[in-house]
Amino acid sequence: MYNGGDHYDGNGGGAANANSLFSGGGFMPSQTTNTPEGSGGITKTRGAQTLLPLTVKQIMDASQTNDDKSSFAVNGTEVSTVRLVGRMMNKAERMTDVQFILDDGTGRIEVNRWENETSDTTEMGLVKDGDYVIVNGGLKSFQGKRHIVAYSVRLVTNYNDITHHFLYCIYVHLDLAKAKKSGTQPQVTANASWNQAPPPNNQAPTLSASGNAGGQDLTDMVMNVFHDPVLVNLEHGVSIEQVASRLNISDALARSTVTHLIDVGNLYPTIDDNHYKSTLNG
């Protein structure tokens, strides 16, 4: 299932960051609730909105959890929001959306990215057929065919990201399989690393010694905003403006830091490109 790594030129960078990759739980389902007996043994995450790293094969093998076949489960855990990494193929630009095929070495799946804002059009203009991309989106089914409605499509600029993605897939798969077998909930451990292992040429901005936090890493400060008990349960997530206001920084700096945190798998967009949630909180 996970032998797609040989298909990619990942440069073997994943092993070097193994401790950071596996020490946290950024992608792990949070606050699960076991359903009563007779419901198929499906474990539901809070709103099934926790972002899970998956392969195309896992999506195609996912079971359907209700009669209308609108929900899916992987390893007994309900899932609707996923992250995929693969090569873009057959990109077709239309009036209101862009459609393409994502090939991750384990299979292929259709992806739609609606262009509701100028930023959506700009984002899709940066990628083309043959590029490796990171897709965050909702898993949907129409007339029996599974596809992804993308919230974001970002170009892979460091091929270690591909290796990291497949390592995350393996880690989450093993954790969910273990939890299902033992009848316990998947383990979620929050720590200071937040699963961050950014490559040297993709560093997020940090505050200088004269900044608001005496040089504290800005990514940590932004993550603290997303985990603030006052904001964590907002239906649509935390906005860029709220982050900027809380930290007394510019909207541009807040957005660039949030973009970095999306790329390393700590945040994901919700209703638009201005609202986000932490993958740890779902």
CATH architecture of the largest domain: Beta Barrel
Q: What structural class do helix, strand and pairing data support?
A: alpha+beta
How many helical stretches? 7
CATH topology assignment of the largest domain = OB fold (Dihydrolipoamide Acetyltransferase, E2P)
**H/E element string?**
HEEEHEEEEEEHEEHHEHHEE
CATH superfamily of the largest domain: Nucleic acid-binding proteins
Strand order of the largest sheet: 7-8-9-11-10
Number of domains: 2
End-to-end distance, in Å?
A: 26 Å
Please provide a written account of the structure.
Belongs to the replication factor A protein 2 family. One of its GO terms (cellular component) is chromosome, telomeric region. With 282 residues, the protein is an alpha+beta fold. The chain has 2 domains: 3-182, Beta Barrel (OB fold (Dihydrolipoamide Acetyltransferase, E2P)); 203-278, Arc Repressor Mutant, subunit A (Orthogonal Bundle). Helix content is 26%, strand content 26%. It has 7 helices and 14 strands. The strands form 4 sheets. It has a 5-stranded mixed barrel with strand order 7-8-9-11-10. A 3-stranded antiparallel β-sheet has the order 4-5-6. β4 (63-64) and β5 (72-74) form a beta hairpin. The longest helix is centred in the middle third of the chain and has 23 residues, at 160-182. It is globular. Mean pLDDT is 74; it is low at 1-27, 29-40 and 187-215.
